[in-house]
Amino acid sequence: MTVQDTGAHEASDGAEATPVLEARDVVVTFEGKGIDGAPTMVTACDRVSLRLAPGEIVALVGESGSGKTTFARTMGLFQDIDSGQVLLEGQPIQGDGRRRLRPREFYGEVQMIFQDPFASLNHLKTIRHIIGRAVRLHSGLRSRRPVEERTLELLETVHLTPAEDYIDRYPSALSGGQRQRISIARALAVNPSVILADEPTSMLDVSIRVDVLNLLAELRRERGVAILYITHDIASARYLSDRMAVMYRGRMVELGETEQVVLEPAHEYTRTLIKAAPDPRRRKRRRRRGDETSPFTT
Question: Do residues 252 and 246 make contact, with C-beta atoms less than 8 angstroms apart?
Fold first, then answer.
């Protein structure tokens, strides 16, 4: 069974809101090999539809290989599609009847935060260059001083303070959490309306994951940025998102308000994900009995 996101979302004034980013019946296939080594086609996304309203956080949940990252890459135009459409503010930009956009136009609205901040940043360049380049490309600022002021402002926004202590560092001199904040600051340099966050906390220490999630929530609250949060962790999805979509073997098998999906899952795969999630209550009971060997035991 495949679930389609065809519902309307209301704007703050009660009117129907046009999705800022939308996928309709997206199909993506790759060439692969079968068990016998013979060529075969692998369907990574099978008629997947999803609407992202302005200022909304949608979590896309699933195990590795479920197709969620491939789907996020189609939304960010990093991956071509076999059929279906991707629409920006109601206008097709990939698929049938697409409107031709220059890359700068599209990425001025949609930015992606990648899973590994170490790999996504150029370690031969300073933070001043990494963020400042995005500022120059998308803001129209050219002079050194205004670009520097904007870069410092973005560092403050992602809570790297005092910003002057970070602007001339290299990514290799920062922690994983700090590097991910640099990635977020670079994305914000273009004033996007959408952020596609692909497992943004999975490469980080447990102790700082919640800080990054809180930062994403703050960006939505203060800037109205819509966020597609891709994760295999249903607990963090519940913490952050308004709605939750569940992908399994390339198909979207469940979609709804986050609390409804968690408390009343309709699909067996969703129930399996929920059962596999760590339960703090079980940890507390083991601690009282004295039989917990690790703070991360579930």
Answer: yes
Q: Where are the alpha helices (DSSP H) in 224-289?
A: 234-240, 258-263, 268-276, 280-289
User: Contact 95/45 with Cβ under 8 angstroms?
Assistant: no
| Radius of gyration in angstroms for the set of CA atoms belonging to the chain, rounded to a whole number | 20
Phi, psi for 180 (deg, rounded to 5): -65, -35
For residue 85, which amino acid is it? Q
Rounded-to-integer distance, Cα 2 and Cα 212, Å = 31
For residue 289, the 8-state DSSP code is H
- Bridge-based pairing state of the strands 251-257 and 243-248: antiparallel
At 12 the pLDDT is: 47
SS3 118: helix
CA 131 to CA 233: how far, in whole Å?
A: 29
Q: Are 252 and 66 in contact (CB under 8 A)?
A: no
Calpha distance 298→293 (Å, rounded): 10
C-alpha–C-alpha distance, residues 260 and 132, integer Å: 42
How many CB atoms are closer than 10 A to CB 43?
16
Q: Which of 68, 57, 74, 97 is nearest to 23 (CA)?
A: 74
pLDDT of 34: 78
| Bridge partner residues of 59 (DSSP) | 229, 244
**Residue ranges of the chain with per-residue pLDDT less than 50:** 12-14, 283-287, 291-298
Cis bond before residue 295 (omega within 30° of 0):
no
Largest CA distance in the chain: 64
In this structure, the number of other CB atoms found within 10 A of the CB of residue 232 comes to 16
Q: What is the pLDDT of residue 96?
A: 76
- DSSP labels for 44-71? EEEEEEEEE-TT-EEEEE--TTSSHHHH
pTM for this entry: 0.87
Cα distance between residue 272 and residue 288, in whole Å? 27
